[in-house]
Every structure is written in structure tokens, then in C-alpha cells.
Amino acid sequence: MVERPLEHKVAVVTGASRGIGAAIALACAAAGADVGLVARAPQPSAGSPLSNLSPDGGEALRTVAERARALGVTALPLGADVSDEAQVRAALAQVAARWARIDVLVNCAGIGVFGPVAETSTADWDRVMAVNARGPFLMCREALPLLARNGQPGSMQACILNVASVVGIKGYVNQAAYTASKHALMGFTKVLAQELQPEGIRVHALCPGGVDTDLISDARPDLDRSVLMTAEEVAAVAMFLITQRGNAVVDQINLRRAVSSPWFC
């Protein structure tokens, strides 16, 4: 019998159309969770609720939704820009209408702009901060009324997983905007964990290094992709955090490539 620790639970995952977000969403579905899949549709009008994805940009998200449904769960694709407050509210309103609660919230949507500080435009800086820092803030704040509460030790409690990066702790040249956004996300996560602890809601951070995604091609074109972590490997660790029970709580996990030098906080 296949273990499904998230049976009858609801997981909402941002950045769910590809990469780590898609891998985590499918892992949640394989564990039995119904999934709300959030990803940005191309060129959404500011503040507009996106009940339908456009034919082109929504294709990847629809594919993930179909794969999730094949695992025997309900999947709700939601086109939304997480940096847009109105779109976040509209997406979560659809989650509320369908399930009335959230057991797992995973913030994985992210973008990067790479280059020297001297060549980083204010617009690029603001765009990266909006998606990578403002986005998780909006998702968490607006999801709070839906998060399952009052879980007892050893039982399923609501949890939030913010997917940061190695640059949430370290810093690399040509990654100023991206690094600043992930440092901001880590700071936000630390405060949120303290604020939600009395309500039994667990807040985790996952900080992976080089993962074989589209983003890494822009950030580190020097890396040999054959030695990068896979999105599925990251998702396996995410599922450990999401499904852990009892009194031993892991707040943060750092992941690195097997061939890279060990690093410690």
C-alpha cells in the first residue's frame, strides 16, 4: 500500500508550472494532497483576477495539473502574478471557494536578473524584489485565514515552506538583486515562524544551491548541468519538511551539489 501522508489535505504551490515548484506540487499530489497550482500567465492586466489561463502561457501549468489529477487528486490551476495583490487575493479566493482551507503553502515562484551592480537597473531590481520577496509576503498574509490551526503535536498541522536559495545565506558576484531578494525572504521567514508558532503553524525555509532549472542557465552558465541537483531531489527534501511530525522540528535545510565544497552557516 502506497503511503499518502497528505491524504485529504490541501496544498497551494506557487511557481507550479515548472522546475522546483512543479516538482513539489507533484510530490504533494503523490502524497495525496489536492493541489492549488499558482503560476504567472503572460502579461496579465494589473489587478485582474485570472480565472482562466491564456492558451500559450498556461499550457505548462495545465500539464502539471493533468499530471496531478492522474495521481488521483483534485488540481486547480490558478493564473496569477504573486507580486500583484489583487491577483493573489483572487487566486486564494478560488482556493477558499473550492476547499475552504489550506494545509500546506509552498512559496516557490521566483525570478532572477544577473549582472554587475553597475549594470543592474532600478526596474530590474524592483521586479526581482517584487516577485521573490513581496510575492511570498502577499501569499502568506492573504492565506493566513485559510491555514489549518490548532494541530496537536504528532498530528497534521498547517505549514508554510518558503523556497529561498543558497544566496539567501551567501552572496555571489553578478547576483545582487537576486541575493538581496532571497535574504529578504529569509528574514521574513524567521519572523513569520515566530509569529505563527503559538497557532501551531510551522514555517520552514529550504535553501538549495545549484538545481537544474531554467534559472540556473542565466545565473551560472559556467556550471556543468550534469552535476546539478534535480528539481525532484529538492522536492524530496521539501516533502520531508512538509510531512514531519512530532516535537522535533526542522526550521531550515540547506542543500548543495554533491561535487561542491561543503558550506555551513
Can you tell me about this structure?
Residues 43-56 have low confidence and may be disordered. By secondary structure, the chain is α/β, with parallel strands linked by helices. It is globular. Helix 3 packs parallel to helix 4 (122-143). The termini are far apart. It has helices at 19-30, 59-69, 85-99, 122-143, 176-196, 214-219, 231-243; strands at 10-14, 34-39, 75-79, 104-107, 159-163, 202-208, 252-255. It has a seven-stranded parallel β-sheet, with helices on both faces. It has a single domain (10-255), classed as 3-Layer(aba) Sandwich (Rossmann fold), CATH 3.40.50. Strand 4 (104-107), helix 4 (122-143) and strand 5 form a beta-alpha-beta unit. The protein is built from seven helices and seven strands; from the N terminus they run E-H-E-H-E-H-E-H-E-H-E-H-H-E.
